[in-house]
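Moderator note: this is an archived Q&A kept for reference. The question asked for a predicted structure of one protein chain; the sequence and the answer are reproduced below.
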Amino acid sequence: MKSRFAALLIAVFCLSLWPCKQVLAKDKETSDRAITSEPKFSVRSPMGTPPPIKQFAMAPRLNSLDGKTIYIVDDGFPGGDVLLNEMAAWFNRNMPNVTVVYRRKAGPFEAEDPALFAEIKAKADAVIMGMGH
């Protein structure tokens, strides 16, 4: 008796799903048609197209730092002076034959400092330019 009742409940449940299947099929057909029709609007990226990247060759390495002048340049980023001063102190302790010149670049970190860059071109053999963190 219980198994017949259970079978009857299952049959009623399955039959009640039949109209849902037809509605879902009709909705799918409508949505398929909507996808293939012309779009009503288009979306554009507000970022635009970035310019192509120009690659530059790396500067050649020095064979040795003995007798050379190294400029250590701080660009003004907060905390950068701590690291770069420590680097200058390391060179002074461990490589006394290397002349280390510590400079802070004028202006904000992204701006150029023509006077400093001219001095570096005239006097430096190598440059370490760093940011904080």
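Archived answer notes: Residues 74 and 81 are 6 Å apart (CA to CA).
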